[in-house]
Design goal:
The complex is a heterodimer of chains A (568) and B (280).
Chain A: H1 3-6, E1 22-30, E2 39-48, E3 52-57, H2 64-71, E4 81-89, E5 92-93, H3 99-105, E6 110-113, H4 117-120, H5 127-138, H6 143-156, H7 162-165, H8 175-187, E7 193-197, H9 205-222, E8 225-230, H10 233-239, E9 242-247, E10 250-256, H11 257-262, H12 267-275, E11 294-305, E12 314-326, E13 331-336, H13 342-350, E14 357-362, E15 365-366, H14 372-381, E16 382-385, H15 399-409, H16 414-427, H17 444-456, E17 462-466, H18 474-491, E18 494-499, H19 502-508, E19 511-516, E20 519-525, H20 526-531, H21 536-544
Parallel strand pairs in A: 3-8, 3-9, 6-7, 7-8, 13-18, 13-19, 16-17, 17-18
Antiparallel strand pairs in A: 1-2, 1-4, 4-5, 9-10, 11-12, 11-14, 14-15, 19-20
Chain B: H1 3-12, H2 14-31, H3 33-36, H4 68-104, H5 106-121, H6 124-134, H7 139-166, H8 169-176, H9 181-217, H10 228-235, H11 244-271, H12 273-279
Classes of the chains: A alpha/beta (568), B mainly alpha (280).
Chain lengths: 568, 280
């Protein structure tokens, strides 16, 4: 960005007049030759003040994490290295400091919280000792004092029974608790700067809310400077004081949160904000016409885990008393947190899982009563779109073959099936040559389009979409949702849309079923569920949506069904 | 994976290239054995106990006047033939059983794995000796015996690959699009599980050659086929007087096994690039 643009940034608080805690000037990070671009971070300039939360927003590959890693000395040297610029911490350049001084800074004055609490903790060390490590490294507290401090820290991050918990191993804690331990560890030496790299992305929405609340209160209490890296504008609206938007390693917009969120200037920021999924107020209720296409009636599935020759297995009820109906042309959303059993129901309907009891009626025929041969014709009618665009396509087959394989298995002529595959690929917004290429040549969003084409090749009546956009970047997410909506309307498809994200469900679904611990706790039209939730759990889910008090600027609100979006 | 990419990754490992060169030389020797040494290696070619570099025998002769060099060239045939065919047979048994166990899981898996363990509990070499001794030594029985003792690790490997690939979404997509189990096993899963199987198969060729040599050393080789193991076994009584009789066939075994191991490692680097990078 040019200097003239930089000077446009309005000064927000008196904090600007004091020396910034962190002053990043013209930072460039070089990627190894042969990477998709020469610089991961290109001439980046921003400041972080004391008592401020700066949100760095960007999609995957924008260089936002690289910036944080450069600060913590975590760049994978020698392949990736700082190519220019400076990182001033209280006026001293971190990059030119002697190694020992850098080390005492990191973990001491600058601390970091990572995205994956599962892998960031050493699984073989009690959590108390892990927190104590950095105290031993950076302070000269005696052992008993360290232990007391650890318990105090665990209490501060809101963990119950801190003294007992300090003796626990990480595997005994839930994801949210682990992230709290990570935060306690980062806070151990009372850092001036806390860097949080997508700390809530791996968490369920209600846990995310608790962690965000915790981070915000701790930051306010200690007047720390905080650099919060995220891809989610909802989270930004929740906690940011200032926002820096990055794209392809460059800073594209930088300013106070209220300006960036409500009056975004740069087209990319506007596009990102427009892609934030949200409930569309004026959506019409779906009119249920005719007989239901699919009825799930009291479906129950119990998984047996563990156990062996001489040991009884443990029972996990993944689904109990699950009943719902889907009418032709209707989109039913199945919403729930991880482990709620939403995928179990979806997989039961496509026949990947055999439920223990209950009925799944497709146009009046009970699919569960059919044997393998009897079920086969129904395979065509019910198709699935999978979650992970990287795992759902066979890396050794050409895209055209992947799409045509289903019809060929049902006895269609191979040449015809391939020709049809090309048509379908065009329909989902990919160009004709796509059929001859291999999956690894496509981006995540494009692969998801291929997955959709594969499902459509079977000419299904019902599409089960299992978290089809959760692995995608926000802007791509919007395009794929739009494509699904468009196809559904054009082909009058019914859809079961499984998601953990209420915002996504709000945008695409007519009817929403909320699941918790294997049960459907609320079932109603999207309008009812969003404006007048009856169940307490639904209310807590709605309440946990990040940035709910922020309204996307009017001119950027999405209008679904405006035609097939271009491929990305 | 693109072919040129594969070669570049393979060539980055200098040892693997060296291994490939040695292996090519041995294959050449085996292929042209009857051209280079037209006489039967069992026939007397010169006086007994000729040291290396003598007139009629480059690498010397043994106690019956047979040419050591001719024996090594013709032995290379037997070693390579047995190494390759027994590995192919072991692959056929191991991968089939492993694939079935991994794909079906549950009781099928239990049954096949218990059967596999049965073989793993018996020491390899002892079982091979017993099998060859029962079925009278010949090339076929030796190949079968080696295959029968070497398939269990391949079965376990194939099973592990199938177990993890079976839950991958592209396999589930194949199920929901109505593809048959055979299609899914052969077209969807098998091509994706081949890399580690190829690598361990290349190492298994080396093991098979060693097994064959050991059997021949004990006198359980095919009596009509000249073999490195037999040459060492026959010469062991005169090793103090005539070192060349056992050292040259021994060197041949060492070089072949070493070359196969180097090539196997290179294949591993090229086919499992993620593992290779984390090591280097």
């Amino acid at each position: 960005m040019s200097l003239s643009e930089l000077t446009r940034i309005p000064t927000e608080t008196a904090a600007m007049t004091t020396t910034p805690l962190l002053d990043v000037r013209g930072l460039s990070i070089a990627l190894p030759p042969g990477a998709d671009r020469p610089l991961a971070v290109d001439n980046l300039t921003f400041t972080l003040n004391p008592d401020e939360i700066l949100c760095v927003v960007g999609e995957s590959g924008s260089g936002k994490s690289m910036t944080a890693h450069a600060m913590m000395g975590l760049l994978p040297a020698p392949h990736v290295r700082v190519a220019g610029g400076s990182l001033l911490f209280k006026g001293k350049d971190v990059l030119t400091m002697p190694e020992a001084e850098q080390r005492s800074l990191r973990g001491g004055r600058i601390a970091m919280v990572f995205q994956e609490p599962m892998t960031a903790l050493n699984p073989l060390m009690r959590v108390g000792r892990q927190i104590g490590e950095s105290l031993r490294e950076h302070t000269d507290l005696p052992a008993p004092a360290r232990r007391a401090r650890v318990v105090e820290l665990l209490a501060q991050v809101g963990l119950p029974n801190p003294a007992e918990l300090a003796e626990a191993y990480p595997f005994r804690l839930s994801g949210g608790q682990r992230q709290r331990v990570m935060i306690a560890m980062a806070l151990a030496c009372q850092p001036d700067i806390l860097i949080a790299d997508e700390p809530t992305t791996a968490l369920d929405v209600t846990t995310q809310k608790q962690i965000l609340d915790l981070i915000r209160s701790i930051q306010a209490e200690r007047h720390m400077g905080m650099m919060f890296i995220t891809h989610d504008f909802g989270v930004v609206a929740e906690i940011a004081h200032r926002v820096a938007v990055m794209r392809h390693g460059k800073l594209v917009e930088y300013g106070p949160a209220s300006d960036v969120l409500n009056r975004p200037q740069h087209p990319y920021t506007r596009q990102l904000i427009a892609s934030v999924p949200h409930y569309i107020e004026h959506r019409d209720d779906h009119t249920k016409a005719g007989a239901p296409l699919l009825v799930a009636d009291k479906v129950r599935k119990v998984f047996h885990v563990g156990g062996g020759l001489f040991k009884a297995s443990k029972e996990v009820v993944a689904g109990d008393d699950l009943s719902l109906t889907i009418h032709p042309g209707e989109t039913v959303g199945l919403v729930g947190e991880s482990g709620s059993g939403k995928s179990t129901l979806g997989r039961s309907i496509v026949g990947l899982i055999k439920p223990d009891s209950g009925r799944i009626l497709f146009q009046g025929t009970d699919l569960l009563a059919l044997d393998r041969k009897g079920f086969r014709p129904y395979r065509r009618a019910v198709q699935m779109v999978f979650q992970d665009p990287y795992a759902s396509l066979n890396p050794r087959h050409r895209v055209g073959d992947i799409v045509a394989q289903g019809p060929v298995a049902f006895g269609e002529d191979r040449g015809k099936a391939l020709a049809r595959a090309r048509e379908l690929l065009a329909m989902v917004g990919l160009d004709g040559s796509a059929a001859d290429r291999y999956p690894h040549e496509f981006s995540g969003g494009q692969r998801q389009r291929i997955g959709i084409a594969r499902a459509l090749a079977m000419e299904p009546k019902l599409l089960v979409a299992d978290e089809p956009v959760s692995a995608l970047d926000v802007s791509v997410q919007g395009q794929v949702l739009e494509l699904l909506d468009d196809i559904r309307k054009r082909l009058n498809l019914a859809m079961l849309f499984i998601t953990h994200d209420l915002r996504v469900a709000a945008q695409v679904c007519d009817t929403i079923a909320v699941m918790r611990r294997g049960r459907i706790v609320e079932l109603g039209t999207a309008r009812e569920v969003f404006t007048n939730p009856r169940d307490a759990y639904t209310r807590s889910l709605l309440d946990a949506i990040p940035g709910k008090s922020w309204h996307i600027p009017e001119d950027l609100q999405a209008k679904m069904g405006s035609g097939v979006a271009g491929a990305h | 994976m693109m072919k040129s990419e594969f070669w570049r990754a393979f060539a980055r490992n200098k040892g693997a290239v060296l291994g490939l060169v040695i292996l090519a030389a041995i294959v050449f020797l085996a292929a042209f054995a009857s051209f280079l040494f037209p006489n039967d290696p069992w026939d007397m070619a010169t006086a007994p106990f000729q040291p290396p570099l003598s007139e009629d025998a480059l690498l010397g002769s043994d106690m019956l006047g047979r040419d050591i060099a001719a024996g090594i060239a013709h032995g290379a045939r037997v070693s390579l033939l047995i190494g390759l065919t027994s590995t192919a047979a072991a692959l056929a048994i191991g991968v089939t059983l492993g694939a079935l166990a991994g794909f079906h899981g549950g009781r099928v898996d239990d049954a096949i794995m218990r059967f596999t363990e049965l073989f793993q509990t018996i020491p390899n070499f002892v079982l091979a000796v017993v099998l060859v001794a029962i079925f009278t030594p010949s090339l076929t029985t030796i190949v079968l015996a080696i295959a029968i003792v070497s398939w269990p690790p391949l079965a376990r490997l194939a099973r592990a690959e199938f177990l993890s690939l079976r839950t991958r979404e592209f396999v589930q997509a194949a199920i929901t699009t109505g593809q048959s189990n055979t299609t899914i096993i052969l077209r969807q899963i098998l091509p994706n599980s081949l890399s580690p199987i190829i690598v361990s198969a290349s190492l298994m060729v080396a093991t098979a050659i060693l097994l064959e040599s050991s059997l021949s050393f004990l006198g359980l080789g095919d009596p009509n086929a000249m073999s490195w193991g037999y040459m060492i076994g026959a010469a062991r009584t005169v090793i103090r007087q005539a070192w060349w009789m056992s050292v040259f066939p021994g060197l041949a075994i060492v070089l072949t096994v070493l070359a196969l191991n180097l090539v196997g490692e290179g294949l591993n680097d090229a086919l499992n690039p993620k593992l290779a990078r984390s090591r280097g």
